[in-house]
Amino acid sequence: MKKIFDFKKSLIPLTLINRPSKSIKSPYVADAKNLKGEKCLVHVPGLGLAGQCLNGSTILATPSKTNSKTDYIAQAVCYEDIDKKKVIIGANPYTAELICKSLIQNDIWNPFKGWDLISKPKNLDYKADLYLEKNKNFHIIEIKNVVCASYDPRRDKKGEKTRFHDYKTPFLRAGVYPYGDLNQFYKGKKVVSERSIRQIDLMKKNKDKFNFCILFLVNRGDCEIFKPCWKADPIYAKSLLSAQQCGINLLAIKINWTLNGCYFDKELKIELEEW
Fold first, then answer.
1. Which of 82, 110, 116, 250 is most enclosed, with most CB atoms within 10 A?
2. pTM tops 0.90, yes or no
């Protein structure tokens, strides 16, 4: 594995007490305490990570910027799975973008060789996560922070992870996306993320103008493949399959976390069929 970020002594273990905070009523702010028992405020951009970041969870955080309302920013969560195995999950979508940018800039993993990483062109009416340019052609990248995984139903005796059960044999744990409830609508149909599906439709509409890529960053070290989460959002899963058929590039990579930083592991296979 190749190290991406070494947080050294700046990655602080904290125990989550309340989310939202008792003093700042925002779902993105939590009360926590450090190893000395001192209370602090933490920005939690990944919210509850589909039930993987709860009161009592150990989170790894970095100090907030000066004048911030919070003391720390959550970077990862130490999670004990249903089979008592422990995994550290990257919990900050913005850091996921920085990870991808660092991988490309430093040639740790770079399938876009020959392309220059640039800021968003002023004349480009498309908001994305990363932009690359070569000979006045653009490669536009959307990054998805994948924090959930599939589960073997034979090991989930209590049915705690029914939504993520994968009956395919032999079982191979997958990073899965999206996660959440069907609380949004896209073209009259219930979806987890209207924005994610709208992005795919825009890519398909503009595929002759630009090169597009959806990069799934599986931000946990216990997965060997990536799959769209059909059970959480079949509309998104079908849209992703349609995107591939239209020539949109789909990629997935795995990131491992330790108490000191994060590492690039490998590129992952993508399986799009329903499960």
1. 250
2. yes
